[in-house]
Amino acid sequence: MNTKRTLLGLAIAAYALIGCGRPYRAATPEGFVDLGDKYPNDEYRAATADGVVIGIRAFDNEPKGTLKFWGRALENRMRDMGGYALIEKRAVKDAVGHEGIQLRFGHDEGKEPHLYYVALFVTDARIFLIEAGGTKAEMDREAQRVEWAIANFYPK
Amino acid sequence: MQINRVFPALFVLALTLLVGCGGDFKQAHTESAPPMDAAPAVDVGSSSAGVTTKEEVYRDEVVVAGKAPGGVQESLFHPGADFSKNIPAAAPPPPPPPPPAARSFQAQAGQPAPGPTTPPQAQPTAKKPAEPAQVATGDAAALRTTMLIYTAEITMAVFEVNKQLSAVETLAKDEGGFLARRDDASITIRVPVARFEAVVQKIEKLGDMLHRNVVAQDVTEEFRDLEVQLRSARAVRDRLEQLLSKAVKVEESIAIERELDRVSGEIDRIEGRMKFLKDRAAYSTITVTFSAKSKENVNASHVRLPANWLDSLGLQRLLSL
């Protein structure tokens, strides 16, 4: 009995540990592979065999800003970097109904056009960044799966 | 008795001779149509060195004209005269009383002349008082129309550059314009001025516009000035051609031709400039440049927010697995 309880407790703890490093729960879409915990700062990475990558990061909301503020800051920073053309801005929602914003950029690598999407969710405590990128052709092919990953993102 | 008859007869004969001689002289002058504008327009009485007064010119012409038929035309041409100078509007001082034969000179003096033609360059002088009225009526419509040259420079963010360059080129053709220049990162199109604004708006929707600069250059004044200059130059050219046809001496012909060349060149230059302005006004110029990095930093955020994650954005980091 004690052994069973201990084992159960360990299992629960293990389950919690796997998730507790990240202040969110990522959903890996079909056709993508979760690349594990090898990335720093609890970053989630998943990729397709054809080079489309999804990345999720969380940061402290310091200095405290709203979704509109950080969305504008992100847009300005992308412009400063240069080489990225803002194609579209979209309103997005995560698994719990939080409203976020997605900026879609185009980028030419030589003659190969690429797409880079950045979705932003902001809470009082944290900023969640969901990136997706790859060649335009592959991103167009995986567009729905990328949208699914965002719609099933669960911030803790 | 005989003396009474002779004297009147002699008087009449003398009078006839005098009138007859003057008439011939007048006819010679009329046919040769002296180039009044050839004479430097200076006041009578000014006797500075190197400056020939009108009175002196008149005397020379009268004296020489009396020499021989050929001498009439010879004397009436003043080599080195600047044909492009307009005769000043102010009426010159009254000339010395001329013989009846030189009545054409009186035209230059501002007195009515029965001569067949007044010099072309005198015409602007005579017409000057009428010019405002002419402008008010005939050219009023032209003056009210402004001539604007529209130019736009648009900078777009780089993405699928070739595709966007082709889209801009197609847009130009669809709107009745044409391609002026195209390279790997920029394109210049010319579109009808009526479609300028619409085309600029359509180009902005093709991609991510970083910067736009639209200039409207008003060249109405310049065009109007060129029209006036052209009219004057053409009048001078026509007059020179008339003089050339009447020139007798080789030196005269060479000098007139030289001046004619100069005036013709001036006409070509003016016409060329007018054509250029008309073309630029009729078709506006739009240049679209695809810039990987904004040179003017129009949207640059001058404040660097203390958020390190903003420095770790982009495909390079994301795709580095």
SS content category of chain B:
alpha+beta
The N- to C-terminal Cα distance of chain A equals 33 Å
Q: Would you report the number of β strands of chain A?
A: 9
The overall pLDDT average of chain B reads: 70
* C-alpha-based Rg of chain A, rounded: 18 Å
Quaternary state reads heterodimer
Q: The biggest beta sheet of chain A, please?
A: 7 strands, antiparallel
Per DSSP, the total helix count of chain B is: 12
Distance between the termini of chain B: 144 Å
- On the 0-100 scale, what is the average pLDDT of chain A? 89
**Overall geometric form of chain B:** rod-shaped
SSE layout and pairing:
The complex is a heterodimer of chains A (156) and B (321).
Chain A: H1 2-20, E1 24-25, E2 33-34, E3 44-47, E4 53-60, H2 67-81, E5 85-93, E6 99-109, E7 112-122, E8 126-135, H3 136-141, H4 143-151, E9 154-155
Chain B: H1 2-32, H2 54-65, H3 69-76, H4 103-108, H5 122-127, H6 131-137, H7 140-144, E1 148-157, H8 161-174, E2 178-182, E3 186-192, H9 196-206, E4 209-218, H10 220-246, H11 250-282, E5 283-291, H12 315-318
Parallel strand pairs in B: 1-5
Antiparallel strand pairs in B: 1-4, 2-3, 3-5
Detailed description of the structure:
The complex is a heterodimer of chains A (156) and B (321). With 156 residues, chain A is of the alpha+beta class. Helices cover 31% and strands 38% of the residues of chain A. Chain A has 4 helices and 9 strands; from the N terminus they run αββββαββββααβ. A 7-stranded antiparallel sheet of chain A has the order 2-3-4-8-7-6-5, with helices on both faces. In chain A, strands 1-9 form a two-stranded antiparallel ribbon. Chain B is α+β, with helices and mostly antiparallel strands. Chain B contains 12 helices and 5 strands. The N and C termini of chain B lie far apart (144 Å). Chains A and B meet through β4, α2, β5, β6 and β7 of A and loops of B.
